[in-house]
Structure formats: C-alpha cells, structure tokens
C-alpha cells in the first residue's frame, strides 16, 4: 500500500491531535499579554493571551466534525438533486430542479450568513447546516455537469430497459462513472467549508468567536502574525495537512479502483 | 423545426429573465428580515430613539415594506436604480464606481486562471499517482488550505514590506500603478486554481483511460494533441461549471481581497451597503449580480451541453 | 518461408489468472498478403490480434514474441525494434469513437499526422463506403448507425496509412452489398502492399481474400495454410431452411405498428410511416442497407426512441413511447437486444449478475433463482457461466453478444427485438443460437423481430422478411437492385 | 509655528523636535466610511469624517487634551450671572472664499444642526440652547440664550460635529469652510484632497497638500504606511504597534486615554438592579488581565469611572482590584449564587469580543456563568441601549460633564445603564448653576463617588489610540486623546 503512505503521513498528525488533543489538554493557565512568545508558552499566546498550544490541542475536533458534517450534508442534498436532474428525460423537470438554485447562487451569501447569524443564532450544528446548504447549488451544478454525460450512455438505456431501479442507476452506475469528479470536488469543498465556519464564527454564527478551533484560530490570530506567527502557522499547517492528506487518500483509493476497465 | 439547442437556449433565456427578477425580490426580503434599518445604522453609537425616529421619517422608511419595494420596482422599470438612503447619491454611481476595479481584477484573474488551472490539471493527469501528480496536487491543495486572508497578509509581508518589490495596497488608485494588481490577483488565484485543476485532472484521467483516447494514440495522433483536443473536451464540463462559479465570485465582489488591498470594488460596496441597510444600493447590486450569475450559468451550461452531445438522445 | 515479414508472432501465450486465453499461436503478416484468423467465438482471435498492438488483458501473463507491431506496454512479448504502425479496426467500433467530438475531428487529425489533407479524408470515407462525406464529418458518433460507425473506424485505419491493418470483424454490421465492397477495398489495399490480418466469421470473405488462414480453437492453432486447404471447401450449408410443418400456427397479433414516423433530434425523419404486425410465435426478419433505419425502428418498439409519431400496440394496448413510462409489465413484454452489446454492460459488474439482475427486476425472482436461470440460459447459448462471472472486459465479442441475448431472454418477453445478434458469431454458435430462439418461439409463442444482415440466419429463422430502405418498409427479401446502389447515409430527400 | 493653545504639540511624539519645514503632501490613512461618505460637517460620525471636517471647517471651541473647552473661532465667552445667557465673541477669521466668519454664519450653522427634521448628531448637545431667542449682537458677537443655567456651556461650542459653515450652505459638493485647508477634490470612500489655506487665522499649515485616504482594513493601513504609500495611519492595532515600534521603519504614537473600555449593567433589571451584584462584578474584573488580553497591553486599567485624565476626574478614589472572595460574598448576600447572565457583545469595536471572553473566564472563577452572545455590529448600539442586561461598551474621549448629561441623567438620550436617580439629576442641575469652579468640582466629585460605588458602568480600561507615522513626519501630538483639538491636527505637522 505504498501509494497510501504519503497521504496517510500528511493526515496522521492532524487527526491524532484532533482526536487525542482534548484528552491531554489539561486545565487553562492564567492569561498573559496577547501575542507574546515564550514565557512558558512554547507556541506563545493567542489574541486573548491564552496558550496557543493548548488551543491547538483543543481546536481540532470541531474543525473536523463541522467541516465533514457540512460537506456530507451538502452532498446528501446536492447529489440526488443533480442526479435526478441528469437522469430525467423531461427538460422542464430538469429546469424545475436546478433553476431555483441559480437564484440562490445570485443572492450574496453575505446576506444569508448575516441573516442566519442574527435571526437564528445557530450552534455548531446549525452552522454545519448553513455551510452545507450554502454549498448545495455549486455542488449540484458540478455534479450535474458530469452526470448528464454519464446518464446518456447506452448502459443506462439498457439498465432502464431491464427495469433497473432509479437508485441503482443513479448511484451504482452514474455516480460510479463520475466518482473521480465527485471526489475531487468534495475534497476541495471540505476545506472551503472549514473557513466559512471561521468567518461565520466571527459574525457570531456557530462556534464562539474565541473558540478553540483551528480555522477560527487562523482567522482571529492574524493581527499578531508578525509578533507571534505560531498562532496562525501551526493551525494553518494542521488544516493544510488534513485537507491535502484527505484528497491524496481519495486519489490513491481511486487510482486502485480506476485502471483501464474498458479495454476494447 | 428548431434544433434542440436553439429551443433550449430560448427557454433558458426566458427562465433567466425570471431568475433575474426573482433575485431582487429575495434580496429585498432578506434585507428587510435583517434587524435594524438605515435609520438605526446612521444613528450609530448615538442611538437616541427620538433621533432614530426623526431620521426614519426623513428617509420615509416609516412606510410599509411592500410600498417601498413597489416604488423601487416602479423606478427600475423606468431604468432608474434610485438613490442611496445614506448619502443621497444615485445608486448607479455606486455601481459604476465599484464595477470598474472589480471587472479589472476579475478579468485579469480569469485570464490567468484558465491556462494555469487547466495546465496544472493536465500536467497532474499525465501520470496518475506519479511524482508530478503528487507534487502538483499537494502544492495546490496546500495553498488552497491557507485562507485568503492569511495568504494575503503573508505575501504582502514578504513581497511588499520585506522585499519591497510590489506596492502592498492600492491606496492612491489602481490605474496609477498597475503593479498593485499583482498581489491581489495571486491571492484570488490561489483557491480557484486548485479547485479547477483538481476537476480537470479528475476528468482527464478518466478520459485518457477511455478507449477512444487509447485508440487515437494508437492511430498515431501525438499524445499532446490527444490530450488537448480529444480527451480534454470530455473532461471539461465540471471544470467549466466551477469556472463559472469562480467568475461569479470574482464579479460579485471579492470582499477579502478588496479589503486587504484597499480596492474599492463591488464587494466593498455590498459590505457597506448591507452594514448601512442602504436598501436601494443593495437592491441595485442584487440586480447586477442577478444578471451576472444568470449569464455565467447559461454560458457554463451551454459548454456542458456541447461537451456531452449524446444527451440530446437521452430517453 | 522467405518472403519479408511485417509482423511475426511466435508461440504467443496469453494467460489471465491461470486461465490460458491464447496458447502458442504463431502467425505472420506479410506485405501484400492477407492472413486470416478464424475460429469459434472465444477462441482467442481478438486476444491474439491485440498482441500486434501491444495490448493485453489487465494482469495478463504473456509469453512468446511479437516482432514488428506497435510499441506496446513493454511486457514480454511486446514488439521489439523495427516496429511498424498497425492500423486497427476493433471489434466494438462504438467504444473507440469519441462521444464528445464530431467524427471529422479525429479523421482530420489523422490526415494531418499521416500527410494528406481534406482530400485524403474524403477519399478514405469514400473507400469506407461513406458517400455523404460532409454528413459524416459533421456528426457525433451517436448520430451514426452501427454499420456507419464501423466504417468510420475503418476509414480511420485507412487514413493512418498503416502498412499493417488488423481488422477485427470488419464486415459484421454491414449489409452483404457493403460487406462485399469493403472486402474489395481490402483487396485493393493489399494489392498496394499492405499486410492485412483479418479476423472474421464470414468465411466467404475469408476465402476471397486470405492467402493464409490460421484456425484457432480454444486459444490453440488447429490448422494453418491456404484457405482452400484449411477451410471447408463448399459454401457452408445455410442453416436448415425453415419448415412451417410441425410448427404451431402463429397465434394472435402481438405487436402492431402503424404509421410510425421517427426522427432524430434536429435531424430529418429517419422512419417514414412504417407499419408492421407481429403475431405470437412468428419471426419477422428486418433487413436492409446499413443506415436505413432498422435499429431506429427497433429502439422505437423498445421505447428507447420516444421521438416518434404513430402507434405501437401490444395485444391491442398502446405501448407508452418511452421506457420510463412502461411499467414492469410493459418492459418485460417487449425486450430489445442492442446492436452494440459491449457498451450496454456496466464495466464494473460481472456479466452474469447483470443478466440475472434483469430477471430479479422484471420477473421478481430472488437473486439466487435469477442467477440459476441466468446460468442455465447462458449455458444453453453456449456461454460457459464461469466466463460470464467476469466483468465484460473479460469476455469476447461473441460471448458478450450472447450474454446480451440472455439478458433479454431471461425476462421471458412476449416480443423480442434482436438487433444484429449473430454478427459476431461463428457458424456453429450461430446455428445453436438460432435453434434456441426458434425453440423459444415455438414453445412460448415468442414473437421475434429479427434485425440482421445475415441472410443465412434470416433464412433459417424468419417466417417472413421485410426490407428497410431509407426509412420505409418494403415487404419481401431485398431485391438485388436495392442492394447494389451505392448506399447513402440518410435517405436524401 | 504658533503652538496650539493646548500646549506645545507632541512633546513625547517621535521626531516632534526640529524646526518645521514648509511644503509637501501628507497622505493620511483612516478607516473610512465607504462610498457613503459626504463632506457635510454636520453629518460627521466616524473618525475619518471628523478628520476631514477638521481640515476644512472649524468649531467655535474644541476640547483640549484634558477635555476642557479651548477657544477656536470663538475668541472668548462670557456668561451672565445666572449662567443662562452666554456672549461669545468671534475672532477675525475668514472662509476659504475670503468672506469673514460672522455671527450670522454661527447662528445659521447651529440652527441647521438643531433642525428637528434633520436629526444631526450634534443636535442633542445643542439642546440646552434656545436658538430662537439667541441673536447676533454685531457681526462678531453672538448672544446665546439657554433654556436653563449651564455652567459647562463651552462644551457645547466644542461639541462633536458643531462646525461652522457659511450662512446658507446646503450643497457640500465644493465645501467652503474656515479650516486650515481648502477643498480640492473628493472621491467618496477613497480620498479627499485639500490644499493649504494661507488665510487661516491660526497660521497657515506647513503642508502644501493633505490627502485623507480611506482603508477599512487595519493591516492595509499598516502596510501602506510601512511601504511609504502614506505618512500617517490612524487606528493601528496594538499588535501592529508592538511589531514595528522597534523596527525603526515607522513611528508609533500612542494617544493615551482615547477610548474608555467597559461593560454596562442595566441598573433597573435583575440581576443588576441589586447594587450588590453590580459591586460583585466590579470585584470580579481583573482589569490588568483584561488590558493585557483584550488590548494586548496597550492601555491603562480603569477604575469604573469615565474620563481618566480629564478635568473633574476624581483621581483620588482608590483603584479597584479583583477580589473574588468579596465578590462571592456579595453575591451570596444578594442571593445570587450560581448566577447566570448573558453578556451582549459584537465585533463593533476592537477588543470587545476578546474582553467578553476574558470576563467570562474571570466570572467563572467567582461561580458566575457568563454567556457571551455575539450580536450584529450594525445595530449593536441600539440593541444594547434598551435590550439585554449586560453588554460591552466603549466611548471616545468626552468631557466628564457631557458623559453624565448624555448617559446618566433620567432624561439622557443614551442612558445605557438605565441609571435614573432624581437625586443624582439634582446634583447635576446644581452643578450647572454653580459659577464657582471649585464648588462645581466638588459636586462632580460627589456624583462620581456615587457612580463609583453603585453605578452601572464597569470601566476596566482606557485604550491607547495608536497612530503610525512615517519617520519624516514631525509634529504629531501624543498628548491628544482622539477627537480632541490636537488629534488629527494636520495644520501643525510637517514633513522633514
Ligand atoms: N481480460 C480477460 N480475462 C479473462 N479472460 C478473458 C479476458 N479477455 C478475454 N478473455 C477470454 O479469452 C477468450 C478469447 O477472447 P477473444 O476476445 O480473443 O475471443 P475471440 O476469438 O475474439 O472471440 P469473438 O469471435 O467472440 O470475438 C474468451 O473466452 C474470453 O472469455
Ligand atoms: N441522433 C441522430 N441524429 C441524426 N441522425 C441519426 C441519429 N442516429 C442515427 N441517425 C441516422 O439515422 C439513420 C438510421 O440509423 P439506424 O441506426 O437505424 O440504421 P441501421 O439500419 O440500424 O443501420 P445499421 O445496419 O448500420 O445498424 C442512419 O443514417 C443514421 O445516420
Ligand atoms: Mg473477438
Ligand atoms: Mg443498426
């Protein structure tokens, strides 16, 4: 399994910290002046004078959970939608499914986030929901674009002729055909979701603006970048490792699955 | 009889008009749903209730929402976008001022994005899982994982402050010193390059493995040509969609980059207008964004259709 | 043998997962000579031929040597130095046509690469019996009929100007007239010094062309030599002529088609006011020139081509135009065997499962029952179920064709439309298949619409023959006249 | 150069020394107000607006660094015995178009501000003045009639936004004022360009030109300054200051006591209607930790009283420090153990969200659960004026009297602590009708003691206002809290 080695290496550290971190974090010490290095804080202090290392230990879980939840949700909604649109023969039905999303796309997402922020005051769960839903139109468009071609292949005709169920056609045949595209898109969305969470946090949606959360840390410790880079660099690296690792693992998995199936 | 394409295009244009109309309505509802109104934001940190009431009266915000929207729509029909509640300047001016820098930034970014992203995607796809593929994927994903803001601050620190090669911000105007565009454009490129390249790569790997590509190679067509003219078209549809979304994002205001580099584009206008609950301006932007989005989506779908011609016979 | 060789294959062995596909096959391709590979379906012809292109099944163990031929995958047996370009007409033309590009694109590219401009393209298409040049160039592969696709691929091979051409069943999919002209074309090519490796079941063509014949069986060479020596001398006996005697009278009208006019999106009508009736236990053969509209008709009946007017009635009940609106009953009542079997099987599932699945869905069988039925059916069609439990890439052309037939029969339909189901089959297998169908017809009153170019098969099975000519039905077998006009592409108004 | 009345500018300011050099263009960066900016001086709201107005216009008086009114366009003022009629004599000053500044202009400007239909910000400050009855005695003398005795009337003349415009001005496309610079060009949300006004009464500026540029993002302001795209950057974060203070590339000027930082407790709502709970919270706050964490150390700790360093500030009162045990005791007495309160905050001002988080932790140590609720920054001030019970609060420098009259009287318009005490109001009225400064000071002291003991303002610190300057920029005063006379005073600076 050599081809998995690289991706695994990248993802190992972040995952370990995310999972085990909270267990070893321990009690918070007294606050110091914000953005200072040294003084018993080996990664310095953050924007409210807390120990960065402790925040790093605590900050993995929410990132991983919210981002994954949001991405999964986005796909749970967008994939069936896009497939339905791609597999339906009737043009109007396709329009009915997809056009409303375009309107959503055209609405400045800033407005949506602000509104949810003020109107609903959601917790992390609600946030994942918001971020996930926000991604639906984009995901749907990308998946649909790939799926229409796959849905027009003779195989699908044959499956229909033999009374195959919609689900099998959609997920076993079409989705399988476009799995690389889906994986590539999902992989990048994951990261996108992460930082939407951070921005939203600052607007008061979801996690607290001073929450221990890698994405939030990167966002909020920015002002101290020159006094105390670790507060930004370390979480950023962890997130990068996490996302890059995930994507490379996807690649590796598909590499094996792939290969030239059609020979002649 | 009309070709299916023309029929499709006509239908989509009609729908598009509907969508463009729908956007301001939705936006209006959202802005109304936001707490507070222009009067409150004008009052700022001196929220004397009497004063707020007076402002509200002066701005004629005390009328029912439906009435205000009707007025606005009525003006729009006569090609009038109305005036800002806060400053009284015509909304058209706001849009015009914001549009220039935004379009400039967006076009430069796109002009670079397409070749770079497609190029990288194709390079990565040459040998799936090969060192080049790994390198490109890791690099692009790594950059993608750094949020715009951190990236911008970092690049500015190095290239503008430490090395002094480039101006760090656009204060004093973009036209005067085109070099200010470099950093913003790089920051704007960072993420789309990754997402588009990844899609191109994915599609191309499939396509290059498909029998028709193998066959073309076997017939002696140069690999490069097979990749570009035979495989790529089959790989492009999703990337095209992603590209459209990117263009949309670029044209509808890139808030972070604008703030970071002091480029007073549409993003800034939107941000301020929403913060000030300056409904006419927000509405004006909504119309503009509606048009942009619909047109871009239409273009992307057109490309997708052309690249999957067999869909015409799907039963 | 002292003549120069373009390609020589010496004691080639190809084995996958311990199973030997090809075992010690040797052959030569010489300039200006035709080497023919014949043998029953699944005997290893394609596998052998692909070796000349340096292509082997995934994870194949290869022994022996191929000298000349295409630089391949670098495995043992991959061609060494002095390799020549090998033009290839694959057995499944559809799969090698780029769905996203017009046919013209690759053709022009080839012309550019191998010298020669638009003229070369034009000539190649003409040679490949595609007269409406512009029409072809500006079309997408899916807008071509099976035979047309095959000829486009042939034209590609011609354009490469390869000194060696591997033609895998190049004339299946073609009507006898076109087939004959394609054969003649090969003759001219060879006369110009090209070396041809011909894989075919069509022994007539082989006799005409071949200088040397290699007969394979189960991957082994059983005979080699000039056709006269190795092939049965006489015209192979046309399968026993149908005798209505001892057969149940055709039952009530099952399928009645009236005023059927079909058009393709954006294109002109391809079927004009077609009408026909099909009785239970009757077999109607549909013949006609390639591109005349047979498949379109078949697809209309199967509900795969909803863009048509006119009525299609099953037992007097109008059938919905589209498969989507045909319920389980409608679907199982009318089944269709696709002309291009290969691209109707999903790449990632064992063929057996896919065949069985049809029974599960349309006859409510339990997966295990369905699997058993599928096995017995496949066996009956001469296809070893063990083979069928591989994904489609692991089956030969003829095997896939039989699997496709099984996939339709397992549903136990009332009406079966067979589109060129014998094109990839050797005489014996074909006879067996036809016997099975006849038996089904007589036992279960299956009504057959038998689309074919294979007049022998038609003669064997059909109670009546209708001819499709430019989208119109003409009763009776094709008159020689229609046969000999240069075949057009679509019916020119 | 004639030093500003409030003492020589910038003793402590880097490079304030040396003899002024004439000429050059100064580019000053502020957090702008976007495309909505106008040049109507009566609409000032943000620091950027104030800086622009200050360059073009002038008030009758302005606040010195101790927030006491300093004469500007007014040469001097004179109350009557009853302190309800004030005679203001204008100095000889001219507008940019050469017209003299007259009593008519003053009255016009004030009436414009006070126009109820317009609801200008400064209207509240002018409320005590009976403008109908006020009149011009001669071209350069105005007599203001007040509705009641008002000893601190000069604060009105110095009120934020009370600028003097030429009589009849309504259009501000090409503003004409009496300030040190005259208008050249204006691009809303981007830049205002002004030129030296040689006729300025207080001595023409050293600079040829001044360009006030807008950059909302702090890092952008800092970078532009570092890269020499600007010579003056207003409102930098403490982090930026610390990062570059020693760098030697830019100068850092800390304007002390510029922004009061605190929390407001609604004194009429549970739990804060119980004085003991308020006192407990006074004792929960570890002020140094707040200053370090939220202001990154850039500020001084507060003593729950407004206006540190200002006139009338009771510096004598003992400094409060955290005392969790007493806090617990008080809460117990108040029967408020295991207290839960929601703290409203918002990213509306620097340090808010941070401070809220820190106080939350401190309160936890005293067994109080503070739940931080981040609200919309656009409507924050209105939301907390009457909503919630506990909220983050800040205020720019103001005279102590203005703070009281605007925020702590029963009739105050922005009384965020709902501090409504008739007896307290009486003290205020009494002070305003007391002519003798010493006696008045005593009254202010009594009021503030009261607030110190049981008020609703938990004032934990005073943030420095941080300004970055290019090395060649001289004469920037460090002794000027934001919004005082010498703050953003570009007529006294020069480029070396
Ligand atoms: N990838 C594979 N793995 C295992 N078996 C294979 C594979 N490909 C082909 N075979 C088997 O090898 C045998 C020869 O296949 P081949 O395609 O060469 O037959 P063929 O002579 O071309 O038959 P046809 O005339 O039907 O095309 C067949 O029985 C087939 O099932
Ligand atoms: N999507 C399409 N658009 C336009 N024309 C099409 C399309 N599909 C098929 N045609 C044309 O319709 C005609 C009938 O095609 P069809 O496949 O029915 O022919 P066929 O009789 O089956 O030929 P063959 O014997 O080669 O299979 C052909 O000339 C073909 O070029
Ligand atoms: Mg074969
Ligand atoms: Mg056909």
Features:
heterotetramer, A: 264 residues, mainly alpha, 73% helix, 0% strand, disordered C terminus, C: 493 residues, alpha/beta, 6-stranded mixed beta sheet, 25% strand, globular, binds adenosine-5'-triphosphate, binds magnesium ion
Structural category of chain D is alpha+beta
The greatest inter-chain interface is formed by: A-B, 71 and 79 residues
Question: What is Rg of chain D?
Answer: 23 Å
Radius of gyration of chain A: 22 Å
Let me know the average pLDDT of chain D. 89
- How far apart the termini of chain A lie comes to 29 Å
Helical run tally of chain D: 14
| Total beta-strand segments of chain D | 19
Shape of chain D: globular
Number of strands of chain A: 0
**Structural class based on helices, strands and sheet pairing of chain A:** mainly alpha
Helix content of chain D: 25-40%
Q: Report low-confidence residues of chain A grouped into runs of 5 or more.
A: 258-264
Shape of chain A, please? elongated
Amount of beta strand of chain D? 15-25%
Largest sheet of chain A: none
**H/E element sequence of chain A:** HHHHHHHHHHH
Oligomerization? heterotetramer
Summarize the structure.
Chain C has 493 residues and is α/β, with parallel strands linked by helices. Chain C has 17 helices and 19 strands. Helix content of chain C is 33%, strand content 25%.
Which secondary structure elements does this structure contain, and how are they paired or packed?
The complex is a heterotetramer of chains A (264), B (315), C (493) and D (496).
Chain B lengths: L3 H30 L4 H6 L5 H10 L6 H13 L13 H36 L4 H15 L2 H15 L19 H28 L1 H8 L4 H29 L3 H7 L4 H10 L3 H29 L8
Helix pairs in contact in B: 1-13, 5-6, 5-8, 5-10, 5-12, 5-13, 6-8, 7-8, 8-10, 8-11, 9-10, 10-13, 11-12, 12-13
Chain C lengths: L6 E10 L2 E11 L4 E5 L6 H8 L7 E8 L18 E4 L13 H11 L4 H10 L5 H5 L8 H14 L4 E5 L7 H16 L3 E5 L3 H7 L2 E6 L2 E6 L1 H4 L22 E11 L5 E11 L3 E6 L5 H9 L5 E7 L2 E2 L9 H6 E4 L13 H13 L3 H14 L4 H4 L8 H13 L5 E5 L7 H18 L2 E5 L3 H7 L2 E6 L2 E4 L4 H5 L9
Chain D lengths: L24 E6 L16 H10 L4 E3 L5 E3 L2 E6 L5 E6 L12 H12 L8 H4 L8 E4 L2 E5 L7 H5 L23 E7 L3 E6 L12 E6 L3 H9 L5 E2 L4 H8 L4 E16 L9 H10 L2 H8 L4 E3 L22 H10 L6 E6 L6 H14 L3 E6 L5 H7 L3 E7 L3 H8 L14 H11 L4 H18 L2 E14 L2 E2 L19 E2 L1
Helix pairs in contact in D: 7-9, 8-10, 13-14
The complex binds adenosine-5'-triphosphate (2 copies) and magnesium ion (2 copies).
The site of one adenosine-5'-triphosphate (ATP) has 22 residues of chain C, from helix 5 and helix 9.
